[in-house]
Amino acid sequence: MRELLRFIQRIHFLLLFLILEIIAFSFLVSENSYQRAKFFNSSRKVFGQVYHAYDKVAQYVSLKQKNEELVLENVKLHNHIPSLENSPSVFDGDSLAAKRFSYLSAKVINNSLYRRKNYLTIDKGSNSGVEPEMGVVSPTGLVGITRFTSSNFTSVVSLLNEEIRISTKIKKTGYFGPLAWTGADPTEAYLMEIPVHVNISVGDTLISSGYSAIFPEGILVGTIKEYKKKPGDNFYEIKVRLSVDYGRLGHVYVIDNKLRNEQLNLEEATAND
Amino acid sequence: MIRILPRNIIRFAFLVLLQVLVLNNIHFLGWINPFVYVLFILLMPFETPNWLLLLIAFALGMTIDSFSNTPGLHTSATLVMAYSRPFVLKLIAPREGYEAGTFPRMHYFGFAWFLKYSVILIFVHHIVLFSVEAFTWVDFHFTLARAIISALFSTLLILISQFIMYRK
To answer: Domain range holding B14?
Structure first.
């Protein structure tokens, strides 16, 4: 027994190192395990508050550019007004469907660009009604999907994350496919599964398809930067210039789809049929 | 001895904040990212017990990981670095050993000693860090280049900080 204790004492440094290293690696490989990832991420209160305090100071630097963005958005909204006023006044629509999506404004307080899996942190959490799996958009386009929430902060999986696929369609033709990021350039992504018989051209606008329960239809995603037809392949290889400049995100909106659960339940029931 | 604790707590907080608020946003040429928080491990007193060194490395790595949404990544690299520290110290010890009352600083043991000390440990840390991150990557040459160039960058920043902080 004493021999054993002495042995442990002699190798305690190595032993402790191995134990701690195993703990670290278990975090690493179970990065997707909900419980652990939830415990150590920037939506946690302390970490969120540090970023929040820093952002209060740092935001002044980019005020000018943020203002310009808001002005542009105003112009866009003003342009919408005439078309809304000209719509038939008696048309009431389906009130449930009309109120299907509601928007909540939030501020980005932390952001990463150059990892394989990039996340943002925003300053609204479950207290404001944010839940996991909600869409996040900015005045310039689609940003990402919420992942974890604490009472006042939320971490968002940005479009610059290998795990994310966004159902995207070409505005002109209506053909759609998943948009994926490949992990290199924060201004580019790839649109897949567009068959080669479709006519596309450089500069075509891409918008969200509205087929998922997360984003409504018509949110700007980007434009086609270049495309290739590979011999023997039925699909184009389409490089997309993303409309959002992820390096300069300021204000964003979280989209709450009121009918999301209904849609998901129905889809699940159908899939299990 | 009693002054060591508050000073180290402040240094810990300062280096973590510097790393997550400033340096994590620096991407020289798009992919060179310096990690200067490891300076905390470099500056720990010689007398620090080995087990404490590991526990501190664990806490430091966990804090950085939590801020940057990378569970386990910085922790594993910082642990390897802390584990290597006693061996590196022994390897590059001056002939008369480390006197009591001295700290692993440039003005005690000279520029050449400190350069050797920090370069070895920073490279260990960065190479582990970038290759652990690369488990999900493909291009190993790119990873290695990233690690080496980022390590050079970190070393440079750490040396500059030492010149500024501890002028004679």
So the answer is: 4-165
A166-170 and A205-208 strand pairing: antiparallel
Structure token digits, residue B29: 């040429």
**Residue B128 and residue A19: Cα distance in Å, rounded?**
17
pLDDT tens digits for range A157-196? 999 888 888 999 998 888 889 999 887 788 889 998 888 8
- Please check whether residue B46 is in contact with residue B89, taking contact to mean a CB–CB distance below 8 angstroms: yes
Cβ–Cβ contact B73 with A under 8 A: yes
The reply to whether B31 touches chain A by the CB within 8 Å rule is yes
- pLDDT > 90: what percent of chain B? 41
pLDDT band at A42 (very low <50, low <70, confident <90, very high): low
Structure tokens belonging to residue A67: 């203002």
Q: Which CATH number fits domain A166-245: 1.10.540.10, 3.30.750.24, 2.40.10.350, 3.40.50.300?
A: 2.40.10.350
Tokens matching residue B159: 């040396």
CA separation for the pair A157, A147 (Å, rounded): 6
Q: Domain residue spans in chain A?
A: 45-80+94-162+248-259, 166-245
Chosen for mutation from A8, A12, A27 (greatest number of chain B CBs closer than 10 Å) is A27
Chain A residues inside the 8 Å CB shell of B76: 21, 24-25, 28
Q: Could you tell me the CATH superfamily of domain A45-80+94-162+248-259? A: Rod shape-determining protein MreC, domain 1 (2.40.10.340)
Interchain contact, B17 vs A25, CB within 8 Å: no
